[in-house]
């Protein structure tokens, strides 16, 4: 639960202990905006604030599933300028993400990694219970491939954000979110 703003203070605490970390970020949006309604801290800006504070090892950041609406004509420009690997949703359509995650594991190496999963990275056909649904997203199977593909990484924390159960009378979004969190717990170091 919570919006993506919560990742910013979490990464401040994580970086205080581990230094700049790698990031596996699944989302429909890059969340690297600068301001909204005059505010610099909001759910569309956490990763820009993290870059500005040196909380991320930018060469070890991957953003998967990006797509959808934006106020910026090139919403991924800032991410690419920082050295993030950007994997748009259309590069994921109709295929397994096992090979991608093999590349991501190599990119992350054995240094600390944080996983941040916004439920709107998934197609709203599967997870409509979110505040900013965007069509043509990832499938639940691809989400599992991403999370399970993080096994073996030096994961120092993770989150799942933007679940809004009141927007999904079926309860499927909450169920999917709970299962993804369970899967994240299963890939933490030392879990058998």
From TrEMBL:
Record keyword Kinase present: no
UniProt keywords, alphabetically: Hydrolase, Metal-binding
Gene Ontology molecular function, alphabetical: agmatinase activity; metal ion binding
Signal peptide as annotated in the record: none
One Gene Ontology term from the biological process aspect of the record: putrescine biosynthetic process from arginine, via agmatine
Domain of life (superkingdom): Eukaryota
InterPro entries xrefs: Ureohydrolase, Ureohydrolase_dom_sf, Ureohydrolase_Mn_BS
Family the UniProt entry places it in: Belongs to the arginase family. Agmatinase subfamily.
Protein's name in the database: SPEB protein
């Amino acid at each position: 639960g919570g919006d993506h703003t919560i990742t910013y203070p979490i990464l401040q605490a994580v970086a205080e202990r581990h230094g700049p970390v790698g990031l596996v970020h699944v989302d429909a949006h890059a969340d690297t905006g600068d301001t909204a309604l005059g505010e610099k801290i909001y759910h569309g800006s956490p990763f820009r604030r993290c870059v500005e504070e040196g909380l991320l090892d930018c060469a070890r950041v991957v953003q998967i599933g990006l797509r959808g609406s934006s106020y910026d004509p090139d919403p991924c420009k800032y991410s690419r300028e920082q050295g993030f690997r950007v994997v748009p949703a259309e590069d994921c359509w109709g295929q397994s993400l096992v090979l991608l995650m093999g590349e991501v594991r190599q990119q992350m190496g054995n240094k600390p990694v944080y996983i941040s999963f916004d439920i709107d990275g998934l197609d709203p056909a599967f997870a409509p219970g979110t505040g900013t649904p965007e069509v043509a997203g990832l499938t639940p199977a691809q989400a599992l491939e991403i999370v399970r593909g993080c096994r073996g990484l030096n994961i120092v924390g993770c989150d799942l954000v933007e679940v809004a159960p009141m927007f999904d009378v079926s309860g499927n979004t909450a169920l999917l979110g709970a299962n993804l969190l369970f899967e994240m717990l299963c890939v933490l170091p030392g879990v058998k």
